[in-house]
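Thread: Newbie trying to understand structure tokens

Hi all, I'm a second-year student working on a class project, and my supervisor (Dr. K.) asked me to get a predicted structure for one chain before our next meeting. I've only ever worked with sequences, so writing a 3D structure as a token string is new to me. If someone could post the tokens and maybe explain what I'm looking at, I'd be very grateful. Here's the chain:
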Amino acid sequence: MASEGPRMEAKGTARVGGRVSEIAVSADAARLLVFHDDEAKVTGLDAARLDILGHDRLGPGEPTRRFFLGGRGDLFYCAAPGSGLAVFDASQLRFTSTLSCAMRPVDIRFLPDGERAFLALENGEDGAVERRIGGNLGLAGRLEFRGRPVPESLTYCPRLGLGAVLVRRPEGAVDLFLWRLEPFEAFLSVPIDGAANALAFSPTRDLLFVSRPERREVVALSVPSGEVSRRITMLGGAVQLAPQPEDAGVWALSEGIAHLVRVDLPLGAGPAPVRLEGFDVERNRLRLSPEGRLGVLPLQHSGQLLLVDARSDSRGASSVADLLETGRPLSRAAWSPLGDAFYVAGIDGSVSAFAVNRGNWDLRDSNDYLAARPASKYPLFPP
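---
Reply by user tm_fold:
Sure, no problem. This is what the structure looks like when written as tokens:
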């Protein structure tokens, strides 16, 4: 009989050395890419066997603090020394070109079509968001502002036609800067009272969640008005807000009393916060599976690896589907595009592969569907 819920199984480990800042998987799920920010280097491995296939590094120059920025298909983008955007091709396992930028790139997000992207940049006390289009990411517009983009805060919502980023002004205050996706133009700037470090649009509601760690709260802003809709008090300051694809869910990963919790549900509607042992604010992040139903969270100081059932609902069941004690400090994780496996990096320069067994979820989904539509005679097999 199938297991009750999802489980993970260790499949192998390889050592690549160096300080691993991020890992990613190619679009065909065949290659695992390891990014080393201390050497401005990328190592490529066979995703199934974890054999090292090759590596490439950028030319001389001081490595950037935030090396890996994002990717689409088999192309991955890294901050080059100076003000360039280096392009790494997973199929060739080498850097193929460097795009010139007016400022230093710090973040990139691709729209679902893969043909449009938004690039956040900074230059001293000034910053900008650029619209890039096409296979060569040609410049199609730039919006400049006073202040520097907050790392990892760049986001967008195609349903609302808006993009957003947090901007830290020279005097220390933080603004929320929003723009329209089409036409590409500034839309709204909202001063944030105090510090802010993370953003996430609700996938299904007209809300933008903003983390305010000093006050230990997450604020839900109505969009497009920018007015406060509700405030959620946290056990600690949220360092990451992760929305689930095609679901109302927004997860908050918080420091202080380290925990993981849903912030978009009414009080008591979801599972209790998950206490985290050994969470590292800089290295550890929640990574959701491609369809958003599972999440994996590695923990540095405890060496624990959590598999999270992201489908939290009014049943209030525990959101931890499985937990492994790996015995070594962990940093980042990345899912295979197929959703049947994920990879985890250790701070000792190792990478490990894990297979995911989803148990009897298919049966659970069918039962939930039948319960929701009792009048349907054959709901799973429509005529």
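A couple of things are worth pointing out once you decode it. Residues 361-372 form the longest helix (12 residues). The chain has one helix and 33 strands. Feel free to ask follow-ups in this thread.
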